[in-house]
Amino acid sequence: MSEIRTVCVYCASSDQCRPIFLDSAFALGTLLAKENIDIVYGGGSTGLMGRLADGAIAGNGHVRGIIPQFMQNLEWGHKGISVLEEVEDMHTRKFLMIRKSDGIVALPGGCGTLEELLEAITWKRLGLAHQPIVIVNIDGFYDPLITMLQRTVDEQFMRPEHLQMWHIVDSVEEVLPMLRSIEPWPLNAISYAKV
Ligand code: AMP
How many CA atoms lie within 13 A of 55 on its CB side? Predict the structure, then answer.
């Protein structure tokens, strides 16, 4: 069982998606705040990012946004969160988001979210990150990616053990129980093993 104090959330910046996704982000923010779990995220004010922060703020939760300077210059940062940390670039942002968290959650999103999720999985495989990773497969959004990841194992680009690097839930209500139930990842054991 993992102790979860801070959760890193990857999610969309788009406002144009279906309400089910936006509402789920708000609900996750509220749920984490209610459980006194801090959130670290990309610091944005739009899309699922904004709704996640709004939900946490509504529940008096602590939200840290980490945003690169160029986005802050464009005034993309959320103005109501507890801490908005400005960093030099995207790489620093993603590094700190992982480093400051005890668990990683991916809600639906675009290329930015997918890239962040795959980077976290990659780091875990390399032994550079150990956190539980939970993919929230709302309305089957992540089905094609789950199939693709299985394919990487079927084609022997990864080992079957690597499928345990992430866990999948269907709703935000399942996120925290799942994060807490995941056994610590054996750093440097499976992750460094050759395919
Ligand atoms: P996407 O899933 O493509 O919307 O990307 C989400 C990620 O893209 C965020 O974590 C950021 O890295 C970045 N991003 C794109 N647009 C924004 C925005 N308006 N405000 C903050 N971050 C953004």
Answer: 25
C-alpha to C-alpha distances, 190 to 65, 116, 149, 150, 162, nearest whole angstrom? 32, 22, 17, 17, 8
Residue 134 is assigned to a structural domain of this protein: yes
Whether the CB of 103 sits within 6 Å of ligand 1: no
Mutate to test the pocket of ligand 1, among 9, 10, 13 (most ligand atoms within 8 A of CB): 13
Instruction: Tell me whether residue 163 is in a domain.
Output: yes
Residue 1 in domain: no
pLDDT by position in tens, the chain (length 195): 779 999 999 999 999 999 999 999 999 999 999 999 999 999 999 999 999 999 999 999 999 999 999 999 999 999 999 999 999 999 999 999 999 999 999 999 999 999 999 999 999 999 999 999 999 999 999 999 999 999 999 999 999 999 999 999 999 999 999 999 999 888 655 544 443
pTM: 0.94
What is the domain range of residue 47? 6-192
Provide the number of structural domains found in the chain. Answer: 1
Residue 185's contacts (CB-CB under 8 Å, 6 or more residues apart) are 124, 130, 131, 132, 165, 191
* CATH number, residue 56: 3.40.50.450
Residue closest by Cα to atom 8 of ligand 1:
112
